[in-house]
Amino acid sequence: MHEARKIVSMIVENLHPLNQKEQDLLSSILTEQTLKKGELLLNEGEIAKAIYWVSKGMLRQFYYKEGRDVTEHFACENQGALCINSLFLQEPSKLLIEALEDSTILLMPYDKFIRLAQKHPPLATLLRKILEGSLIMSQQKADSWRYETVHERYERFQREYPDAAKRASVNHIASYLLMTPESLSRVRAGKL
Prior knowledge:
Elements: H1 2-14, H2 20-29, E1 31-35, E2 40-42, E3 50-56, E4 59-65, E5 68-75, E6 80-81, H3 84-89, E7 96-99, E8 103-109, H4 110-119, H5 121-147, H6 150-160, H7 162-167, H8 170-176, H9 181-189
Antiparallel strand pairs: 1-8, 2-7, 3-6, 3-8, 4-5, 4-7
Helix pairs in contact: 1-2, 4-5, 8-9
């Protein structure tokens, strides 16, 4: 549970202040899960029950389209991942979540988080900020695909995901940016 308290402290520091009692309440609902590189945290067709927070390692969310996988999101240390549709609507997920490295993940069960949030307004604010952050990130990514050049998308990726930019494979980064690995190599080399 020491790891949960450490992560809660980082979440609180970055998103919303909580007193010690509220931090302890949040820590009490977290469970830890370790994953090996390549292991799935959430598979297509499963129903998401939690918000996933990376303590160590790196995750990617992806989906399959026309026989290939497309990376939707990366999460490194002290970043979260969630499948919004599946979590909110309790429908089978179309997204998969994979560990790109050996990873330690903290699971925040959504139903328990909601119950705590109903009794403790600061936890409700924290939950709202986590969800708002996820929605804003999704909108920014959609806008990036719509309006930015490949160079601008790559520069944004490097700014927003500096750890993933260094640690993820070229194939995963290229799929996230909606380009081929060859195109990404040309963008990196300044030839495109």
